[in-house]
Amino acid sequence: MRRRRAECNRPGPGPRYSRAMSVLSVTEHGLYCPAGDFYIDPWAPVDRALITHGHSDHARPGHRRYLATDTGAPVIRHRLGAIALETIRYAETRRIGAAMVSFHPAGHVPGSAQIRVEVAGEVWVVSGDYKPGPDGLSEPFEPVPCHTFISECTFGLPVFRWRPQAQVMAEIRDWWAENAAQGQASLLGAYALGKAQRLLVGLGDSGGPILTHGAIEATCRVMRAQGIALPDTVPVTPETDPRTHPGALVLAPPSALGSTWARRFGQASTGLASGWMALRGVRRRRAADRGFVLSDHADWDGLNAAIRATGAERVLMTHGYTGPFRRWLAEQGYDAGIVATAWEGETTEGDAE
């Protein structure tokens, strides 16, 4: 079948993709643009790095120069320290060498971006991580017409289909209320950047006090300072006495659940908020009382809809279920390939983001 064309000039048939590509190529340091002499989300130190967002598998230390969105920059500085970071607004076009570059909302976390690169009339878009559905926190995803779309596919199987966010938040509220009625705290595992703040916005101030682990509170503090509205929280400190916060919801990184830090809350109920909670085996392995299916990545339907909206005829997959998703896209008529990267995406274990 023939794919709908984006509103940009189409290139001729291209090669299958391993290391050598056209606008971007894969090197030992990461995705590289020869025309602009820059890298996108490189995993090894480079001279100039364009960063899609602040998660640790995309924003790494050691680069000489960084470029990120003005909204994403505060968290990146918080995580990486004193770096040479230049900012760019969404949809602002900037010439870097012989390449024209612009950043566009990815809907993943506040300030996250897809990066559009145009060289000699050919347009490629690197998605980073993205989520088409609105979440009340991040800037909504905007499809960008292109010839080639480099797409994550963390959840690139049909089993991953997200329920409406309001339903998941209602489930969490009910679980929280049931625990509070039994005099228990509710410990909910969520990534410190993005997921925790999304939960805060979605849950609001309706259920009682919300306590936060130091890693989450530090990120919330950065976002509040840049004008992002978040409900009030109570930071957990060594002096925190759970008896003064009966029935509280406690937000913590997943690795903190079951730790000495968590045991201060006594016989608490534990939950995890992650797209991987859609898999029973992962729920059992993480030994949480409850799993809530909530992800900051696109699900199966979201991936397919986003790819269609770009109008791209060539789609290259990174991290996740790249093999099965590539085969699916090829069956739909796309020129589909896989680009091996060191990106991790949302993992089933630990706190990699």
From TrEMBL:
<dbReference type="GO" id="GO:0004521">
    <property type="term" value="F:RNA endonuclease activity"/>
</dbReference>
<dbReference type="InterPro" id="IPR050698">
    <property type="entry name" value="MBL"/>
</dbReference>
<dbReference type="InterPro" id="IPR026360">
    <property type="entry name" value="Xnuc_lig_assoc"/>
</dbReference>
<protein>
    <submittedName>
        <fullName>Putative mRNA 3-end processing factor</fullName>
    </submittedName>
</protein>
<dbReference type="InterPro" id="IPR036866">
    <property type="entry name" value="RibonucZ/Hydroxyglut_hydro"/>
</dbReference>
